[in-house]
Amino acid sequence: MAHLIQVGAGSGGMPVLDMVSRDPRITQITLIEPDLYKPHNVERHLFAISAIGEAKAEVARQWLLDRRPDVHVQVMLCDLMAPEAQPALEEVVRTCTLGICAVDNEPAKYHWDALMRRHGKPWTLGEVLSGGIGGFVHWFVPGGPCYGCVASHLQRSVTVEKPVAPDYSNPGGPVAETTVPASITAIHTIASLHAHVTLQLLEQGSAYQPGFTSLLFTLHRVPEVFEEAYRTYRLRVNRSPTCLICQPGKAAASSEELDVALDQALARLADE
Ligand SMILES: [Zn+2]
């Protein structure tokens, strides 16, 4: 009996949701996705051409019910960041078992991280790198490193361009114009790893210790970036004692304080 909450049903989010939802332990799903299915989505998405013009969340709901009619599926056609959506989002996160983040923009990832940590929920994140040269899977649990800790660590230690994943959940979005789209094979490879890690985290809970907090999998050899294709890097990221977002003693911070901390952290990341 598990309640999964996912944000994003784009080209990367949908295969993750499809695979995770096949697990019989998943009995309830809440999907947050405001976008409509567009013609340019078809090349990399699971949905059919006939779904163009419909809300991705509604098409996803039917997709899930066609395969798991026993699952209770709720869709929220709201933007994760929309102020008016926050009370309903807080309520649904409060009752969930675990979360999946499949959005491609950094502010939304920070917002999701804060939401999940506020309610003490585990969650996972997948990121396909620009051009589909590889991707990341990250997992988060209460008390562990936050997304800010991880993003800051990776910025310092991994020579990979960030932000990533122009095409992971929102092809055609503002980032996509300046980055190279990933192929559907790259998207689905990382999505499969993301789904696998998510189900392992669901199964093992607080005992989950795969030996990494962030898994990087390369798909292409790229001079001065990746020496080899098909290589895994198991990155252990510790909670940073100086992280402005999750530092100990700040757990009861007000939302205003968290907003200030987030602004400071984003400014710091931009400076590095
Ligand atoms: Zn942190």
Care to describe what's here?
With 272 residues, the protein is an alpha/beta fold. It has one domain: NAD(P)-binding Rossmann-like Domain (Rossmann fold, 3-Layer(aba) Sandwich). 34% of the residues lie in helices and 16% in strands. It has helices at residues 13-21, 56-67, 86-94, 106-118, 147-157, 184-204, 255-271, and strands at 2-7, 26-32, 72-76, 98-101, 123-128, 134-140, 214-218, 232-235. The chain has an 8-stranded mixed sheet with strand order 3-2-1-4-5-6-7-8, with helices on both faces. Helix 4 (106-118) links the parallel strand 4 (98-101) and strand 5. Helix 1 (13-21) packs across helix 6. It is globular, with a radius of gyration of 18 Å. The protein binds zinc ion (ZN).
The total strand number stands at 8
Helices, by number, come to 7
The pLDDT mean sits at: 88
> Which structural class do you get from the secondary structure elements?
alpha/beta
Question: What is the percent of helical residues?
Answer: 25-40%
- From the 3D structure, determine the CATH topology: Rossmann fold
Distance between the termini: 43 Å
Compressed to H and E, one letter per element, the order equals: EHEHEHEHEEHHEEH
The gyration radius over C-alpha positions equals: 18 Å
Low-confidence stretches: 162-178
Gross CATH architecture: 3-Layer(aba) Sandwich
